[in-house]
């Protein structure tokens, strides 16, 4: 019989059959016990798993220690190192195999701007950085940074920039790569340092290095100079 059939109303007092009340109480308690058991079982399972993993790790460490001890005592020979044999000619800058003869040519080092003023001039994202073999970030005066991007002789990149003027420390860093050094002008000491180092200078101001202007972003003129590797060789 439906539960409602066991409810007796007398005046304003409603009474429920005690047998049904006891039955529902037992069902509720059983559900709670079942849920608690599942939770405890899961916690025990996770604890066992962690213990097993910890035990395996400790066992591996013990084996390593025993092996090292045997090697030190001369009871066991150490494993011979294995070497991967590289084939072909490799780029000096990326390590990537280069079957062409361009690997013998000089790389290009381009001084790329990184200015980004909140609410003002911002050259990011720059072009060509992702294609460089090596990117060196250098802090300029005032905490502004610029990049020296090194492009191996095998790289063909059609848009790089915006590139900017040089300081003495930029040419000193680039000099280690024996590159074509590309920049847009320099300070007095910057030019002096380039001449003293004897670095092959490709300055857009002094030597008229090939470049073009991109004014599509609405930036001031000094932030619009771009070049490409094919024009620089």
In brief, what are we looking at here?
With 233 residues, this protein is of the alpha/beta class. It has two domains: 3-73; 101-232, 3-Layer(bba) Sandwich (YerB-like fold), CATH 3.50.90.10. The protein is 33% helix and 17% strand.
Describe the structure.
This protein is an alpha/beta fold and 233 residues long. It has 2 domains: 3-73; 101-232, YerB-like fold. It contains 4 helices and 9 strands; from the N terminus they run E-E-H-E-E-E-H-E-H-E-E-E-H. It has helices at 18-73, 168-175, 188-197, 229-232; strands at 7-10, 13-16, 108-113, 134-139, 145-151, 180-183, 200-203, 212-213, 225-226. It has a 5-stranded mixed sheet with strand order 4-5-3-6-7, with helices on one face. The protein has a two-stranded antiparallel sheet with strand order 1-2. A two-stranded antiparallel sheet has the order 8-9. Strand 4 (134-139) and strand 5 form a beta hairpin. Helix 2 (168-175) runs parallel beside helix 3 (188-197). The longest helix is centred in the N-terminal third of the chain and has 56 residues, at 18-73. The chain is flat. The model is unreliable at 1-10 (pLDDT under 50).
What descriptors fit this protein?
YerB-like fold; 4 helices; 5-stranded mixed beta sheet; 233 residues; 33% helix; single chain; alpha/beta; disordered N terminus; 2 domains; two-stranded antiparallel sheet
């Amino acid at each position: 019989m439906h539960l409602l059939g066991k409810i007796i109303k007398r005046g304003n007092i409603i009474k429920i059959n005690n047998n049904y009340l006891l039955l529902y109480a037992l069902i509720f308690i059983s559900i709670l016990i079942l849920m608690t058991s599942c939770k405890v079982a899961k916690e025990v399972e996770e604890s066992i798993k962690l213990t097993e993993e910890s035990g395996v790790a400790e066992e591996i460490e013990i084996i390593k220690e025993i092996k090292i001890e045997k090697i030190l005592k001369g009871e066991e020979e150490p494993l011979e190192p294995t070497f991967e044999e590289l084939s072909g000619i490799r780029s000096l800058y990326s390590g990537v195999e280069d079957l062409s003869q361009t690997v013998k040519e000089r790389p290009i080092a381009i001084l790329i701007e990184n200015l980004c003023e909140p609410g003002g001039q911002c050259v990011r994202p720059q072009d060509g950085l992702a294609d460089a073999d090596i990117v060196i970030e250098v802090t300029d005066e005032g905490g502004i940074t610029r990049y020296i991007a090194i492009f191996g002789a095998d790289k063909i990149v059609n848009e790089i920039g915006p590139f900017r003027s040089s300081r003495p420390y930029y040419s000193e860093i680039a000099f280690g790569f024996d590159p074509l050094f590309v920049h847009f002008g320099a300070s007095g000491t910057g030019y002096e340092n380039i001449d003293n180092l004897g670095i092959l200078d490709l300055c857009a101001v002094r030597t008229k290095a090939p470049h073009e202007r991109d004014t599509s972003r609405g930036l001031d003129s000094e932030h619009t100079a771009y070049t490409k590797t094919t024009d620089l060789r």
